[in-house]
Amino acid sequence: MEIPSEPRVELFHATNQAESASVRRRVTELALEDRVRFRNVVYEEVARDLAARGGGATPAVWDGERLHVGEAAARAAIEAVAVRVAPRP
Q1: CA–CA distance, 68 with 71 (Å, rounded to integer)
Q2: Measured between alpha carbons, how far is 7 from 41 in angstroms, rounded to an integer?
């Protein structure tokens, strides 16, 4: 069994929101589906988890330490994940 080297990143999103769709699409473009957990805030449990991390607005990315709120901040957090997991030459 493989043990992850870092906490799994969570993307809190709303399926009916263009900004959330933009961030979800970027996760897919970067092939980070195995590193980023999509959390749809339509579900009460997910909305509670977002609130417990200090948020309420979407899109938002929880990186294990900090919540990045808003499209630009969420995309930047996703880009940072891509850099961390990129193969090294």
Answers
A1: 9
A2: 20
| pLDDT tens-digit series, residues 13-32 | 999 999 999 999 999 999 99
- The distance of Cα 40 from the centroid of its chain, to the nearest Å, equals 11
Closest CA to 61 of 4, 87, 22: 22
Neighbours of 62 (CB within 10 A): 25
pTM of the model: 0.88
Provide mean pLDDT across the span 60-65. Answer: 95
**40 - beta bridge partners?**
13
Alpha-carbon distances of 23 from 17, 32, 65, rounded to whole Å: 10, 11, 19
Check whether domain 9-85 has CATH 3.40.30.10, yes or no: yes
In order of 1, 3, 28, 55, 89, the CA distances from 68 in angstroms are 30, 25, 18, 9, 29
